[in-house]
């Protein structure tokens, strides 16, 4: 493929700006008292690219949307008071969470299959909706939302619930 | 000229991706910043979160489906990143997840440092808005200041239009009450 010349990108830029203007996105531009340091927006683009490149080098990539949805599902399980069982078939063989390391708990969350229908009975999602949950389509304002980006906080909550 | 679908196709070609992303950053950086700023209040926090938003956009552009609008998808990421940020900040400071005192402190700090500067009534209004729970605050901001349609807010927040109307009504009443008491 021939790499397009600068005019192609100029046209692209102007198209995006037209789209934004068509949508009359006045967002943030009027009626508020917030200000930024002088020249801030001139610098922001290069800061953004620096961050994007740095993160790529570090390999900090959101790997598995399903995995992330898993934490939400696990949180839902906990909040709906469904028991968390480890490895054994019999309910009598429940293992205390306090006896497990964080690595073991994370490994469980990553590897164990989840019964979406069981969770969906406890919450307002259908089983189909549960399986299609990703970080980007989770509803707002739910307690579990911030656990998705902070699995260590989820672990803390699990431990606190277990102590109760 | 290109429409959104064509733009996404261009973004998904590895050789063109970076420069196309540059155009997107150029077009959206200010809007994303202001969206974030009005949620997290503090400028430095808004700067960090804005960069995180664009990292997420860069990482997830291939997941964007053109059946929703590009800008509602971008704002959804911005709103989610901002809410996650303030929840983490509350957790770190060991305060209730509903407590807006940290945001009020940031607001007062901003006024002192000059990063928040406006007419007295504007400042009063912002402080009244800061008393609202996060979701009401978001809906109020998007409807009252950004003039977004309920349909677009619904797409951004994943809430029904009916629910949004009720939330906006409650938020408006609270803000009015707060201004009267002040």
What is the mean pLDDT of chain A?
A: 59
The share of residues in helices of chain A is: 40-55%
The main β sheet of chain A shows up as:
none
The major beta sheet of chain B can be summarized as: none
**Structural class of chain B, please?**
mainly alpha
Give the uncertain stretches of chain B in residue-range form: none
Extract low-pLDDT stretches of chain A: 60-71, 79-94, 116-125, 139-147
Q: How far is the N terminus from the C terminus of chain A? A: 62 Å
Short description:
The complex is a heterodimer of chains A (164) and B (182). With 164 residues, chain A is an all-alpha fold.
Describe the structure in your own words.
The complex is a heterodimer of chains A (164) and B (182). Chain A is mostly helical. Chain A contains seven helices and no strands. With 182 residues, chain B is mainly alpha-helical. Chain B has nine helices and no strands. In chain B, helix 3 packs across helix 4 and helix 6 crosses helix 9. Chain B is globular. Chains A and B meet through helix 1 and helix 2 of A and helix 1, helix 2, helix 3, helix 4 and helix 6 of B.
């Amino acid at each position: 493929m021939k790499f397009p010349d600068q005019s192609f990108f100029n046209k692209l830029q102007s198209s995006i700006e037209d789209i934004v203007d068509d949508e009359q996105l006045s967002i943030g531009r009027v009626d508020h008292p917030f200000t930024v340091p002088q020249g801030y927006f001139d610098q922001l683009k290069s800061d953004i690219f620096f961050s994007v490149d740095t993160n790529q080098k570090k390999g900090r990539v959101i790997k598995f949307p399903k995995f992330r949805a898993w934490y939400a599902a696990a949180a839902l399980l906990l909040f709906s008071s469904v028991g968390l069982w480890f490895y054994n078939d019999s309910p009598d063989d429940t293992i205390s969470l306090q006896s497990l390391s964080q690595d073991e708990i994370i490994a469980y969350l990553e590897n164990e299959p989840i019964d979406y229908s069981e969770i969906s009975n406890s919450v307002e999602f259908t089983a189909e909706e549960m399986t299609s949950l990703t970080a980007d389509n989770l509803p707002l304002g739910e307690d579990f939302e911030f656990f998705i980006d902070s699995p260590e906080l989820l672990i803390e909550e699990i431990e606190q619930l277990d102590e109760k | 000229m290109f429409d959104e679908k064509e733009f996404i196709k261009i973004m998904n070609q590895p050789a063109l991706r970076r420069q196309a992303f540059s155009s997107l950053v150029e077009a959206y950086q200010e809007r994303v910043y202001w969206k974030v700023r009005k949620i997290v209040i503090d400028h430095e926090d808004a700067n960090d979160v804005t960069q995180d938003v664009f990292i997420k956009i860069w990482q997830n552009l291939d997941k964007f489906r053109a059946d929703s609008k590009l800008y509602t998808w971008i704002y959804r990421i911005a709103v989610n990143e901002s809410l996650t940020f303030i929840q983490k900040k509350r957790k770190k400071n060991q305060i209730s997840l509903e407590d807006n005192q940290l945001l009020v402190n940031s607001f007062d700090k901003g006024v002192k440092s000059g990063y928040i500067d406006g007419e007295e009534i504007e400042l009063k209004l912002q402080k009244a808005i800061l008393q609202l729970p996060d979701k009401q605050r978001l809906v109020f901001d998007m409807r009252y200041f950004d003039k977004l349609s309920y349909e677009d807010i619904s797409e951004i927040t994943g809430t029904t239009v009916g629910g949004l109307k009720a939330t906006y009504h409650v938020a408006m009443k609270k803000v009015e009450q707060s201004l009267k008491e002040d």
